[in-house]
Specification:
single chain, mainly alpha, elongated, 84% helix, 2 helices, 62 residues
């Protein structure tokens, strides 16, 4: 059974989706362009975490 979300909740989720997607994509881009492998790996982990949060938020809508 799915809970009905209010308009305000949908607006908040939409804003969070936008923010998480932006950070995820920027972190992914930086992880691929950094020359220090340790930092690139850490930024890759950051990108993965933001992608997971993005997908979790998206799951609330569907």
């Amino acid at each position: 059974m799915q809970t009905k979300l209010t308009a305000k909740e949908l607006d908040c989720i939409s804003d969070l989706l936008t923010l998480e997607e932006n950070v995820w994509k920027k972190a992914r881009m930086y992880s691929k362009t950094l020359t220090d492998p340790t930092i690139a790996s850490e930024i890759g982990t950051v990108a993965e975490n933001h992608e997971k949060r993005f997908n979790a938020l998206l799951g609330l809508l569907g």
